[in-house]
């Protein structure tokens, strides 16, 4: 037992293992609920539970019928299309505006920096139900309720804080004299921004955009208040499914969404490493 | 700024002016970069919130529906039956509302101030709809009393006058379970609805925060003091739930906790219980599901702080004979406090305003304040009360956010 220092008593060692056991139990608590829906989504019966056939690994108890339901049911195909339209448009809007603003915010000369940063990050903190109620009152006067532009604007506002956070984080490693160098050589601020700043902060911009996309893709409260039947998204469809008639189609959709988040996690990790490499190369 | 001022003192006046101009130009340039987003957020986010705050104290519905009656009623002293002129004017207004099909709105608004009067207003409107204008003008008061004798009582008129105020603190009073008595003093209502709900919401948020802390602390500790490759591997298990859709995670808890769900089946199969337990649609299921959903928000800030704590401090204390628990309490815990407070405040702020999970797994006793706001928005159509309840919730959150910004710094929120 030379793994532990000599002054460790048996109780120290017991405590060490108890802590480790606790950590693994918590990890199990985090991950198991998500994994459990994957086998359930292949259920041949319209239940949310493991049938005896599934437990004895009878191949007939498993089927792809709920996945088939997703691609054939018009409600789900519409929802998938809407989620991507709204998510991509909102992410683009949030990323463009947020990136430009982050450049200004990370300038040492920025006036009212603390106040403005707190304001721009506040959509992340204000409860969605309050945002939803306010937007419903306000957007009605502009005819934006029940339209795609209304939802895109609303979701873009939610995505902005994430873009600000990731891009300012990348900009802390950014050498500002490059900007001045570009200006002193006669380029316009816009050209310097486009040709010098953007290539260097690209990983941060892309991960900010991904955050904004996921925020929109996962959002349901604003959709509940602002969307008409034409703008139903995947989470909205799942919400009404869970409230009205629970069937394993929801589990099949959920499984696909888990696969999507795994893909996203891998992409973000890749971007993070790339960003570290870029900064290390400077 | 102090540094730049000192630098300027060494410069010639001409150069100092140029430098100051350059700094001003830099400030303007930095601000110009932020302007487009400020305009966007102003329209898309700040203005909606402001409109909600405004609506919580502004309700022109009744004032727009029956302006003439309210004007006549202003003279009334609040005792006994109002004058014949008021009754006649109101009868004329009621006929117009009945024909415009807006009498329902009036009924709803008066009913909020005096429950049970909705049917009085509606039936009166139905009765007066077909009466000739000339007859109403000459005999309106009698016809109104004939349609429903409640119009002879002062109560309903007081309710009308109260509902007719364009600017009102009434919704805030309702949201705080208070009411204004006739002499203008404020007293508590007999039944406490909203204060109780605020209390329950804060209580549940506190429980959830403590649970995430109890679960998250050992996990973050273990990860922070593992090797980098192992920590990165374990981090996947924290980040995957973090990145997985909220609806997916709520769905899993429905599958796990329902009467014939995975947990109950497992308990029965293991012989621990015979009858399935009703776990879904309770406060219990809301707390469990929200703890699961918010746990990463606790683990991530804790981990990033603990990663920076030098383990040799603890080793030094233990090697010099300190017992583990006092050593932890005096040395490690204070050093991990920034991460702990960041995580706790974040989890608390998010859970106070939670809507989706309580709505889906909460049943009746797991509802939180957000759910009652949604109820007043969507079902009872009492938007002003929803706005007042929302504004109070907003003040609460802003106060917490201010604390967060003051002690931790809003710009220090880390993602992943």
From TrEMBL, chain A:
Q: Which residues cross the membrane?
A: 21-42, 84-103, 115-139, 151-174, 210-229, 249-271
Q: Which residues form the ABC transmembrane type-1 domain?
A: 80-268
- Report the locations given in the UniProt record: Cell inner membrane; Cell membrane
Q: Which UniProt keywords apply?
A: Cell inner membrane, Cell membrane, Membrane, Transmembrane, Transmembrane helix, Transport
- Per the UniProt entry, the signal peptide is none
One Pfam annotation reads BPD_transp_1
In terms of InterPro entries, this protein maps to: Flag_MotA_CS, MetI-like
Claim: Amino-acid biosynthesis is one of the keywords in the record: no
- Coiled coil, from the record: none
What membrane topology is annotated for this entry? Multi-pass membrane protein
Family per record: Belongs to the binding-protein-dependent transport system permease family.
Name the principal localization, coarsely classed: membrane
Q: Output this protein's name.
A: ABC transporter permease
UniProtKB/TrEMBL annotation, chain B:
Topology versus the membrane, per the UniProt entry?
Multi-pass membrane protein
**Protein name per the record:** ABC transporter permease
Its transmembrane ranges are: 30-54, 202-221, 233-256, 284-306, 327-356, 385-404
Spell out the family assignment given in the record's similarity comment: Belongs to the binding-protein-dependent transport system permease family. CysTW subfamily.
Subcellular localization is given as: Cell membrane
Task: Indicate yes or no for the key word Transferase.
Answer: no
Main location group:
membrane
PANTHER family annotated for this entry? ABC TRANSPORTER PERMEASE PROTEIN, INNER MEMBRANE ABC TRANSPORTER PERMEASE PROTEIN YDCU-RELATED-RELATED
Keyword annotations? Cell membrane, Membrane, Transmembrane, Transmembrane helix, Transport
InterPro entries found in the cross-reference section: MetI-like
Q: Which Pfam families match?
A: BPD_transp_1 (PF00528)
The ABC transmembrane type-1 domain is annotated at: 198-404
